[in-house]
Specification:
The complex is a heterodimer of chains A (283) and B (374). With 283 residues, chain A is mainly α. Chain A contains 13 helices and no strands. Chain B folds into 3 domains: 215 residues, P-loop containing nucleotide triphosphate hydrolases (Rossmann fold); 69 residues, OB fold (Dihydrolipoamide Acetyltransferase, E2P); 75 residues, RNA polymerase II/Efflux pump adaptor protein, barrel-sandwich hybrid domain (OB fold (Dihydrolipoamide Acetyltransferase, E2P)). Classes of the chains: A mainly alpha (283), B alpha+beta (374).
Chain lengths: 283, 374
């Protein structure tokens, strides 16, 4: 538009450039407004159904269903399994994330691809994949079941399914958080006589903390919502997403609302954590 | 405490560092070189941030190669300070300090009392470097490494901190390696200079020796000698203290008082002996040594003995502390650059462009043998 060369003489006549801008506006569509409308529509599409959900069930109805034994059991299973999953994902994920952030090897990208794979894999396929390893007829699954710790249709099964799907959030987000910590700070700490571990504890982790917390929160939210892989690996004990499915199948959509609303509330809570504690306070 | 580097090499991609042999006693060694010459690599190797491919680093009798950073007792002040952003200045210093007393002592020495409770983000560049220095010294290192600590500071603060560093270094009895690309900082702080080029030490010596007798054209250029000419040894006269070498540069002829010709340190003597008439040399004259006089002034000892030639001012620049004046001599065939103090500049009326006499004191002409002319 106005940045186009104004002529072979290099003239910068202001009237000339104004004219060309003007004719450009008249002759073409106002893309900015269209873009705003498109984006706005998408926002409405996100928000309107959520609002509609909250209007579909009265608060007393939701609270009433919360007293229901099946709902309480599903909520307990979900909160317990998602919490265990989050701990497992963090304990196993942070070292991998740190390695991915700091290693200088050509293998890094291949490893990262493996980490991201569960994110792009359809969750039901994830469930199938897990069953080939943990299923009751496999060596591992059979042995564990014989030892009294069945890896399917058990809380352990739920955790295995959730960990597969949710832990990559910890690894990927924490990797970015570690990468944002200047290596020079670690070198500085160690040159002051502090061990690698002391350096990680006093310098790297506090600085990467908000980013790590973001990853942990995302993993928890994802674990709470996990349905596909969990359905395949552990239909029982029912988690909340599975309970929604069962209610919907057996009693119709209306009976699925209260649990759905509960899950929305938990998700919004996770979002709040992300926007407050998990954002980097030093920037 | 002594640092001894021997046969140190480190290849990183296209860049090859070393082999470097160097001994640093309880002194300040200013490591000077252009960016990318390997100065920071040298520090990284000593600090343990990088491991050498070969060679040894011995500090106070301890071999450092193979030891982790935290085990080396090597203090490093990083370019931007590398302060921990989530800690206050005090916490940064305490992080390394052995006791509260030491923190207070360092805060007093480095005038940090007023900023101790502030986060690095709120500190000025100069304050940040002071805190970084305090933090490094708090760990009582056996050697102090500094990587261009002044480079990001404004000129007035840089000068002030440089003066303070000078005094601080004098009070330390450990080796100090100070990396910089700024010749003024290097000569101001260094007991010795080490000129680094393409990963190797080009010349190591006292500042005056390196400045006055650069071993190569590179060192001469990098330390500010702009007058570099291809010349030929014309004849040698006299002997002993009276010995002089006449060099021919184009149509001009200069007498030099010192017969020694720099080559690489080991071969300097051999080169000077072989530099008989006809040998090609590089003639170096530092601008600060070139004197300008009015044309009518009398010359002691005759024009030829004093290397006095008539010239006209081609251009001049005001560099603040001094004027840089290019004078064409010999009908424009040769241009000599002189740095002139303002009083002299005004007395000579240089900006009116008069004809001047250029004096090049024989003892200020330095010759570099052809093999080092790169």
């Amino acid at each position: 538009m106005t940045t186009e060369p104004t002529g072979p003489t290099g003239s910068t006549d202001p009237t000339q450039s104004t004219k060309s801008t003007h004719s450009h506006r008249l002759g073409s569509v106002d893309w900015l407004s269209i873009a705003l409308v498109l984006g706005g529509l998408l926002l409405v599409y996100y928000f309107a159904p959520l609002l509609s959900l909250f209007l579909s069930a009265s608060p007393s109805e939701v609270l009433g269903r919360l007293g229901d034994a099946t709902v309480r059991s599903a909520a307990t299973t979900s909160l317990l399994s998602a919490s265990i999953t989050t701990v497992v994902a963090t304990v196993f994920g942070l070292p991998l994330a740190y390695w991915l952030a700091r290693a200088e090897t050509p293998w890094k990208n291949a490893v990262l691809a493996v980490v991201v794979l569960p994110l792009v894999l359809p969750p039901t396929v994830g469930g199938v994949v897990l069953l080939t390893v943990f299923g009751p007829n496999t060596l591992l699954g059979g042995t564990a079941a014989a030892a009294g710790l069945p890896l399917t249709r058990s809380l352990a099964g739920v955790v295995l399914a959730q960990t597969f799907v949710a832990s990559p959030f910890v690894v990927v987000t924490a990797k970015a958080a570690f990468e944002s910590v200047d290596r020079t700070l670690e070198h500085a700490s160690r040159s002051l006589g502090k061990s690698r571990w002391a350096t990680a504890r006093n310098v790297t982790l506090p600085l990467a903390g908000p980013g790590i917390l973001a990853g942990v929160t995302l993993a928890f939210a994802r674990a709470m919502g996990e349905f596909g892989a969990t359905m395949m690996v552990a239909y029982y004990p029912r988690t909340m997403p599975v309970e929604i499915w069962v209610s919907f199948q057996s009693l119709g959509l209306d009976s699925a609302y209260p649990v759905a609303i509960l899950l929305v509330v938990i998700s919004v809570g996770a979002l709040l954590v992300l926007n407050t504690v998990a954002s980097n306070p030093w920037r | 405490m002594t640092l001894e580097l021997s046969g140190l090499t480190n290849a990183y991609g296209e860049f090859a560092f070393g082999p470097v042999d160097l001994t640093v006693a309880d002194e300040v060694l200013a490591v000077l070189g252009p960016s990318g010459s390997g100065k920071t690599t040298l520090l990284s190797l000593v600090a343990g941030i990088a491991e050498p491919d070969a060679g040894s680093i011995v500090l106070d009798g301890r071999e450092l190669v193979g030891r982790p950073l935290e085990d080396r007792r090597v203090g490093m002040v990083f370019q931007e300070g590398a302060l921990f952003p989530h800690m206050t200045a005090r916490e940064n210093v305490e992080y390394a300090a052995t006791g509260e007393e030491r923190v207070a002592e360092l805060a007093a020495t480095l005038e940090l009392e007023d900023v101790l409770d502030r986060r690095p983000a709120t500190l000025s560049g100069g304050e940040r470097q002071r805190v970084a220095l305090a933090r490094t010294l708090a760990a009582d290192p056996d050697i102090l490494l500094l990587d261009e600590p002044l480079s990001s500071l404004d000129a007035p603060i840089r000068k002030r901190l440089r003066d303070e560093l000078h005094d601080l270094f004098a009070s330390l009895d450990i080796p100090v390696l100070y990396v910089t690309h700024d010749q003024r900082t290097a000569t101001a702080l260094g007991d010795r200079l080490a000129i680094v080029r393409d990963g190797e030490l080009e010349q190591v010596g006292e500042p005056s020796a390196v400045l006055d007798r650069p071993a190569s054209r590179f060192v001469a250029r990098f330390t500010g000698t702009e007058n570099l000419f291809d010349g030929t040894v014309a004849e040698r006269t006299g002997s002993g203290d009276e010995e002089g070498v006449w060099v021919q540069v184009g149509d001009a002829r200069f007498r030099t008082a010192t017969p020694d010709i720099s080559g690489s340190a080991a071969s300097a003597v051999a080169v000077s002996e072989s530099a008989g008439p006809g040998s090609s040399v590089t003639v170096c004259i530092h601008p600060s040594r070139v004197e300008l006089e009015p044309l009518d002034a009398s010359v002691d000892g005759g024009a030829e003995q004093a290397n006095a030639v008539a010239g006209t001012v081609a251009r001049w620049l005001n560099e603040g502390n001094e004027y840089r004046v290019d004078v064409e001599v010999e009908g424009g065939a040769l241009t000599l650059t002189a740095s002139v103090r303002p009083p002299t500049f005004e007395r000579l009326g240089v900006d009116a462009g008069p004809a001047l006499r250029v004096l090049v004191p024989p003892e200020s002409i330095h010759l570099i043998s052809e093999s080092e002319s790169r």
